[in-house]
Design brief:
oxidoreductase activity; mainly alpha; globular; single chain; ER-bound oxygenase mpaB/mpaB'/Rubber oxygenase catalytic domain-containing protein; two-stranded antiparallel ribbon; 14 helices; MPAB/Lcp_cat_dom
Length: 296
């Protein structure tokens, strides 16, 4: 009995710490508002986007998305020149996670406000890449690359490490759901099936290449994130799992290893243990939030 209470206390503490890292100091208040405010939502409770975005596999999918997105030189130039990802990486993560939560689970009015805010930021982000090519964050073509790299990563991570992977209908439904958000952001005709998603990824490949900024970002994300010593080993597993989900063609430009036998065995097993552990500690916070909503 005592051991059970102690284990529960450890779980609660880890859950709060992890939630605070990804959601920020305003996380509990934001969660209460997102899930507790009445009103229509963009997505019904049974939609695939809710299943995917609520799963612990998003942790490995998110890191994979950042690595894949960095391969577009114009998208990476915008991040390198206008994003403080080195000085405030957790702040960037928290803003992204809040945006995903609001648009997936929040009231429709709040989701639209979140989109309008992002579009306003995009209008101010423009410049010239190191090769002399001008870019604008609001360019629908760049927005589409960021979108498809993200949802391809989230979907793959969920298929490999999600608690309840989707069937083909569900995977197509997920891509269609995310198209709703992409269109609101400014993407023109985003993919709406898994097959279309694969085709779009392939269509962008001629534009993708290695850049100093992309390699530098990969080193920072994988090797030198600002983390306390106890968190570095689990993060190492997270990093290895995310890299293992990248296709071979995406790794060479980032100088990342490709070891299929090891990745299919030890890395895959380690990834499952890690994601299961994240799911275990995060469930406590979700249950607490559900209880608070029910008590209102």
């Amino acid at each position: 009995m005592v051991l059970t209470r102690e284990l529960g206390a450890v779980r609660d503490g880890l859950g709060r710490a992890l939630f605070g890292l990804v959601a920020g100091p305003d996380g509990p208040d934001n969660r209460a508002r997102i899930h507790g405010t009445p009103g229509p939502r963009w997505f019904a409770e049974d939609r695939p986007i809710r299943r995917v975005h609520a799963d612990a596999s998003m942790f490995v999918g998110g890191l994979r998305a950042l690595l894949l997105q960095s391969l577009h030189p114009l998208a990476m130039a915008g991040v390198a020149e206008h994003s403080d990802y080195r000085g405030d990486p957790w702040g960037r993560l928290q803003r992204t996670s809040t945006f995903l939560a609001v648009t997936t689970f929040g009231p429709a009015a709040d989701a639209q406000r979140a989109v309008d805010k992002v579009r306003g930021i995009h209008r101010r982000v423009r410049g010239v890449a190191p090769d002399g090519t001008p870019y604008e964050a609001g360019d629908p073509h760049l927005l589409e690359w960021v979108h498809i790299a993200e949802i391809d990563s989230f979907l793959l991570a969920h298929q490999l490490y999600g608690a309840h992977p989707l069937d083909q209908v569900g995977r197509d439904g997920y891509v269609a759901d995310t198209a709703r958000v992409a269109t609101a952001i400014g993407v023109v005709n985003p993919p709406r099936t898994e097959g279309e998603l694969r085709e779009r990824i392939e269509a962008y490949r001629p534009e993708l290449r290695s850049t100093a900024a992309a390699r530098d970002a990969a080193r920072f994300l994988l090797l030198t994130p600002p983390l306390p010593l106890p968190a570095r080993a689990p993060y190492g597993v997270l990093a290895a799992t995310s890299v293992a989900m990248l296709p071979a063609w995406a790794r060479k430009p980032l100088l990342l290893p490709y070891l299929p036998p090891l990745e299919a065995t030890a890395v895959r097993l380690s990834g499952r243990v890690l994601v299961s552990g994240i799911r275990w500690v995060m469930t406590a916070g979700q249950q607490e939030a559900s209880a608070q909503r029910a008590a209102r």
